[in-house]
Amino acid sequence: MKNFFSVADVDNLSDLVEEALAIKANPNTEESLGKHKVLGLVFLNPSLRTRLSTQKAAMNLGMNVMVMNMDKDGWALETQDGVVMNGTTVEHIREAAAVMGEYCDILGLRSFPSLKDREADYNEDLFNKFIKFCGVPVVSLESATRHPLQSLTDLITITEYKQVDRPKVVLAWAPHVKALPQAVPNSFAEWMVKAQEQNLLDFTIAHPPGYELAEEFTTGATITHDLNDALSEADFVYVKNWSSYKEYGEVYPVSENWMMDNEKLKQTNDAKVMHCLPVRRDLELSAEILDGPNSLVIKEASNRVWAAQVVLKRILERLNKNI
Ligand code: CP
């Protein structure tokens, strides 16, 4: 594995998940693999889980970790070429990324979308430039369109808790007060579609009209506007809000109640409920579910460590072989 940006960077999903679960069983067997190697974590946006779980994973591998909160502590970045920098931006990504690459062996980057310019966001301009100019392997800590460490975590968690060979997994849209990115649902969808292709699960997406995700992520999934229909016989319900892709970043009023609660859960196969967190209680997901026996959200967050550790391990193995 050279970089980790999407499911396309994974050769064999099952192998990666099994290796992550083996690491979970014995987390400290590779504590010399990353000795004298430096991981730099660069955040242009806030984070709790991604920041701490990736640091912990790197420490389990013997790496040193540096964290840069670019949004608060860095110089204002210019990402466009050919501009005269006589405005508010202070440093160009060409120099900033190259300098970080001099200090670090692997870099992680978190960069949310603007939700204003769909083409720019979906071109992943900033991420691609960062990869190009830093010269070292890059791990996505969530980009404009994807959150692969979260999606790998989610597949690990489903594999760990499934009661049947091919569980029914439902991605269920939920209400929110803000316009949120499509990165988590896009990414979850592309990982679940690939897992479905490999007969690991059945995947359904339920959302109100107007909240269709980009087809590049969802082709192969069953897609419905009927939440009750989707929930029938579900083994896992993955709750998440997102804003409109079509009318980019828009939030439409939704008449039906789309918040998951215990009443809706009765239609499922006693489904486990997942959410990437942070979650707004009793808006996206009921407190009764979050505090009840069907919630996997804390175990899911805990698994973030093993997702990060298996990815860093694979990249370190390649670096140590100089390939
Ligand atoms: N799920 C997730 O990525 O959490 P953070 O935004 O806190 O890192």
From TrEMBL:
Q: Where does carbamoyl phosphate bind?
A: 47-50, 75, 110, 147-150, 276-277, 304
Q: Which reaction does it catalyse?
A: N(2)-succinyl-L-ornithine + carbamoyl phosphate = N(2)-succinyl-L-citrulline + phosphate + H(+)
Q: Which Pfam families match?
A: OTCace, OTCace_N
Q: Which InterPro entries match?
A: ArgF'-like, Asp/Orn_carbamoyltranf_P-bd, Asp/Orn_carbamoylTrfase, Asp/Orn_carbamoylTrfase_sf, Asp_carbamoyltransf_Asp/Orn-bd
Q: Which residues form the Aspartate/ornithine carbamoyltransferase Asp/Orn-binding domain?
A: 202-313
- Binding residues for N(2)-succinyl-L-ornithine: 142, 176, 240, 280
Task: Describe which pathway this protein belongs to, using the record's wording.
Answer: Amino-acid biosynthesis; L-arginine biosynthesis
Q: Which GO terms describe its molecular function?
A: amino acid binding; ornithine carbamoyltransferase activity
Q: What is its EC number?
A: 2.1.3.11
Keywords of the record: Amino-acid biosynthesis, Arginine biosynthesis, Transferase
* Domain Aspartate/ornithine carbamoyltransferase carbamoyl-P binding as annotated: residue spans: 2-160
The UniProt record lists the keyword Membrane: no
Gene Ontology biological process terms in this record: citrulline biosynthetic process; L-arginine biosynthetic process via ornithine
Q: What class of enzyme is it?
A: transferase
Q: What does this protein do?
A: Catalyzes the transfer of the carbamoyl group from carbamoyl phosphate to the delta-amino group of N(2)-succinyl-L-ornithine to produce N(2)-succinyl-L-citrulline. Is essential for arginine biosynthesis.
**Similarity comment text for this entry:** Belongs to the aspartate/ornithine carbamoyltransferase superfamily. SOTCase family.
- Summarize the subunit comment: Homotrimer.
Q: What is this protein called?
A: N-succinylornithine carbamoyltransferase
Task: State the species of origin.
Answer: Sphingobacterium nematocida
